[in-house]
């Protein structure tokens, strides 16, 4: 599988994503957003960072890049697409998944490790886990609070499209364990296809043993 990691002006997790993907056995390539998706693309990562300096809203300007037309077409064809952090914001802004990510409830940038509970283990992104498993990943964001209107949120829950929720080390979903105030403590969701997902925590920063965390390998294993 050749995974295209899309680089925008302001991306800063693109090379991290390439190395992490290679560590789980995937072929990965950096793709400048103005060049479009290569024909050999069989997977897409929208990486973290601060595309266009987060002007207007985080991810809003990058979502207007023509390459997102390619990404939407690929997603419609069943190509795995994962948006991480700023990539999750871009994915929501581009309509790949419902909802939006907005300013943290704390109104400050937060960089820390968090626990996530696997809500749906029957997806490519969570196949390495069991439902209810607790994993640990880093976050680094100022606009990570997931918001979505009531009917859409109910639909996400009823259709089992919530991938992860923030929780404590025991797997309990509590206000204290929700680092940014996300609705329902949601940390990751699926699009209309299970092959499309966005998440705010960084699996690519939890793949190499020398970094102290490896729980992200299971997520990126969807590309291997």
Can you walk me through this structure?
The protein is α/β, with parallel strands linked by helices and about 220 residues long. The chain has a single domain (about 1-224), classed as Rossmann fold (3-Layer(aba) Sandwich), CATH 3.40.50.880. Helix content is about 20%, strand content about 25%. It contains 5 helices and 11 strands, in the order βαββαβαββββαβββα. Strands 2-1-3-4-11-10-9-6-7 form a 9-stranded mixed sheet. Strands 5-8 form a two-stranded antiparallel sheet. Helix 1 links the parallel strand 1 (about 1-5) and strand 2. The longest helix is centred in the N-terminal third of the chain and has 10 residues, at about 15-25. It is globular.
Average pLDDT confidence is 97
What order do the strands of the largest sheet run in, or round the barrel if closed?
A: 2-1-3-4-11-10-9-6-7
- The number of helical segments is 5
How many strands? 11
The name CATH uses for the topology is Rossmann fold
Overall 3D geometry?
A: globular
- Please outline the major beta sheet: 9 strands, mixed
Top CATH class: Alpha Beta
**Strand and helix order:** EHEEHEHEEEEHEEEH
Percent helix? 10-25%
Number of domains: 1
Main structural class: alpha/beta
Identify the CATH homologous superfamily: Class I glutamine amidotransferase (GATase) domain
For this structure, the quaternary state is single chain
**Gyration radius from CA atoms, angstroms:** 16 Å
The CATH architecture: 3-Layer(aba) Sandwich
Strand content: 25-35%
* N-to-C CA distance: 7 Å
Q: Which blocks of ≥5 consecutive residues have pLDDT under 50?
A: none
Keywords: ATP-binding, Cytoplasm, Glutamine amidotransferase, Hydrolase, Ligase, Nucleotide-binding, Purine biosynthesis
EC number: 6.3.5.3, 3.5.1.2
Subunit structure: Part of the FGAM synthase complex composed of 1 PurL, 1 PurQ and 2 PurS subunits.
Protein name: Phosphoribosylformylglycinamidine synthase subunit PurQ
């Amino acid at each position: 599988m050749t995974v295209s990691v899309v680089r925008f002006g302001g991306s800063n997790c693109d090379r991290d994503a390439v190395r992490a993907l290679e560590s789980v056995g995937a072929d990965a390539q950096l793709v400048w957003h103005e060049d479009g998706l290569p024909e050999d693309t069989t997977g897409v990562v929208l990486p973290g960072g601060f595309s266009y300096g987060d002007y207007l809203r985080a991810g809003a300007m990058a979502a207007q890049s023509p390459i997102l037309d390619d990404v939407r077409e690929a997603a419609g064809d069943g190509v795995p697409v994962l948006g991480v952090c700023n990539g999750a914001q871009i994915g929501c802004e581009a309509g790949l998944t419902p909802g939006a990510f907005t300013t943290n409830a704390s109104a400050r940038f937060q960089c820390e490790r968090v626990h996530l509970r696997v809500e749906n283990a029957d997806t490519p992104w969570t196949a390495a886990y069991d439902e209810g498993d607790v994993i640990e990943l880093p976050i680094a964001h100022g606009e990570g609070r997931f918001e979505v209107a009531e009917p859409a949120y109910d639909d996400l829950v009823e259709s089992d499209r919530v991938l992860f929720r923030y929780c404590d080390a025991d797997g309990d979903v509590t206000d204290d364990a929700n680092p940014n105030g996300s609705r329902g403590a949601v940390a990751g969701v699926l699009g209309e296809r299970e092959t499309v997902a966005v998440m705010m925590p960084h699996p690519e920063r939890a793949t190499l043993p020398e970094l102290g965390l490896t729980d992200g390998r299971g997520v990126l294993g969807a590309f291997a």
